[in-house]
Amino acid sequence: MTTELTIRQAAKATGLSIHTLRYYEKVGLLAPIYRASNGHRRYSAEDIAWLEFLVRLRETGMPIKKVIAFADLVRQHPNEVSERRVLLEEHRNQVKQHLEELTHHLQVINLKIEHYQQLEATGENDHNCIFWKHHLEKSLDSKLNK
To answer: Could you say which residues form the signal peptide (predicted)?
Structure first.
C-alpha cells in the first residue's frame, strides 16, 4: 500500500504553501492529483518527488514559464529526453554563472573583513576607504596569481 499525503502534509513535506500546491496543479506543473472519495487531494510519493525537483528548479532561479515548459515536455513526450536535457543544460549554465558571481562577491566580502581585521590589529583608521577599489583589485590579483 502506498502512502498518500493530504495537501497539508504535502505542503509540509515540500516546503510549499497549500496555495502554491493548488497553483502548481492549476497551471499544469503537476498532473491532476488523485482525490479521495471525499474530494480531498492525496499526494503520492511520486508527486512529492516531482514537487521536490520543481522546488530545486525554482530555488535555482528557473522562471515559472520555463518550469512549466519543462513539465509540459515531461508529460507530452515522456520517452523523448533531448529537449528536457537541453533546457536543463541551459539552466545549469545560468546557475553556474550565478555561482561564479556569488563566489566573486564572497571574495570581496572576505577581503573587506580581512581589511577591517587588519585595521583593528594595527589601530589604523579607515581613512583609505576611498581607495578601497584599488586595494580590492590589488588583493584579488595577488590571490589569483598565487
So the answer is: none
For 57-112, the pLDDT digits (tens) are 999 999 999 999 999 999 999 899 999 999 999 999 999 999 999 999 999 899 88
Count of residues in the chain: 146
Q: pLDDT tens across 66-80, in order?
A: 999 999 999 999 899
List the domain range (segments joined by +) for residue 100. Answer: 91-144
Three-class DSSP category at 5: strand
Same domain, 72 and 98: no
Place of cell 480531498: 40
Q: How far is CA 76 from the centre of its chain?
A: 25
